Design the sequence.
């Protein structure tokens, strides 16, 4: 089955300038709505970014044109998300990254990166099944940095002990597992884009001067490429993510918002998500997170407006719907 992983309007949103003026009260509100425990600790750390750049209220954290990008990586505790954070920080000393995850206090890899890049990395708690927490994170970013040039939605689930196992037969489909997968893999990223939208509109862009939203999908979500069946929940959740992303990309284009949305298939990558299904994957087809993320960032670097709404594999090839 391992081969399956790798083969097979909101018109009333506040304007970016209003969000930029988000006050300390908004951040306090963020704490009430979703930030707790480790969240307080990380909000204090995030303030380092604010001081470092002389104040986020002035409207942003540097210029993408001058080499500094503001990126948010959602689902950054481990795996591909963590590696995106690492590479974004390492590729340009002016880059600033907001990394979100469910439990910052348990995210050891992020803590190590925070130690190395204290002023440029901010860690926020965010569970994609909790919309108020997403909204609070957006307010916090608005207050501290004022814009986003790149949003990477990386969080995803394929299996979870006692709750979800990739189904080998229709008889094993369970409504709770199906809905949870849909909520995390499709609804969550959509809500993150919804709340980060004004920040992306204010973004200075990646290369092409447009902000980029990159949603981590999977080839298995392609209906045209489905030759084996199985894995109903995961497969359908990624198909839903693909349709939602395409839909959002069309809305942004219609409104002339300077945002490009794409879907990325990372290949079969050696992470906790793929671990139980790696047995039959040939070595050369099992990528390291370092390799996969490097290839995905190369795609993002070269993205153009005409790529809006497209679904790319790690090697730059477009994937059929
Ligand atoms: N690895 C592959 O072979 C492969 C192939 C195709 C597509 N993908 C896609 O690539 C993305 C990254 O996968 P990965 O391989 O890096 O998996 P991973 O190592 O298992 O990481 C998954 C991440 O999702 C987070 N997450 C799970 N539920 C969440 C929730 N409710 N709210 C916020 N975060 C949540 C996890 O956080 P916690 O630490 O809190 O659990 C973790 O940071 C996923 O969307 C996956 O579907 C992976």
Sequence:
């Amino acid at each position: 089955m391992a081969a399956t992983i790798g083969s097979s309007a909101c018109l009333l949103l506040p304007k970016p300038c209003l969000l930029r003026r988000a006050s300390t009260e908004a951040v306090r509100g963020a704490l009430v709505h979703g930030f707790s425990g480790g969240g307080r600790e990380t909000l204090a750390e995030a303030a380092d970014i604010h001081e470092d750049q002389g104040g986020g209220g002035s409207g942003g954290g540097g210029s993408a044109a001058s080499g500094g990008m503001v990126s948010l990586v959602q689902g950054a505790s481990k795996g591909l998300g963590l590696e995106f954070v690492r590479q974004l920080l390492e590729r340009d000393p002016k880059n600033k990254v907001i990394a979100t995850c469910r439990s910052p206090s348990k995210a050891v890899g992020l803590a190590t990166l925070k130690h190395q890049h204290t002023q440029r990395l901010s860690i926020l708690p965010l569970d994609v099944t909790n919309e108020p927490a997403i909204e609070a994170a957006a307010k916090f970013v608005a207050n501290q940095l004022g814009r986003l040039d790149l949003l990477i939605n990386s969080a995803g689930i394929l299996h979870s002990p006692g709750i979800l196992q990739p189904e080998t037969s229709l008889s094993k489909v369970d409504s709770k597992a199906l809905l949870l997968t849909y909520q995390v893999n499709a609804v969550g990223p959509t809500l993150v884009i919804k709340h980060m939208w004004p920040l992306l509109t204010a973004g200075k862009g990646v290369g092409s001067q447009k902000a980029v939203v990159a949603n981590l999908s999977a080839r298995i979500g392609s209906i045209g490429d489905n030759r084996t069946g199985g894995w109903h929940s995961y497969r359908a959740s990624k198909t839903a993510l693909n349709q939602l992303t395409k839909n959002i990309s069309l809305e942004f284009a219609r409104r002339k918002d300077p945002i490009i949305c794409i879907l990325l298939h990372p290949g079969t990558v050696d992470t906790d998500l793929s671990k139980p299904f790696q047995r039959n994957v040939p070595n050369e087809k099992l990528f390291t997170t370092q390799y996969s993320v490097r290839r995905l960032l190369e795609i993002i670097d070269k993205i153009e407006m005409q790529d809006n709404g497209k679904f790319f594999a790690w090697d730059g090839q477009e994937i059929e719907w």
Remarks:
- The domain at 69-95+148-313 is CATH 3.40.50.720 (Rossmann fold).
- The first helix runs from residue 2 to 6.
- Confidence is low (pLDDT under 50) at residues 1-63.
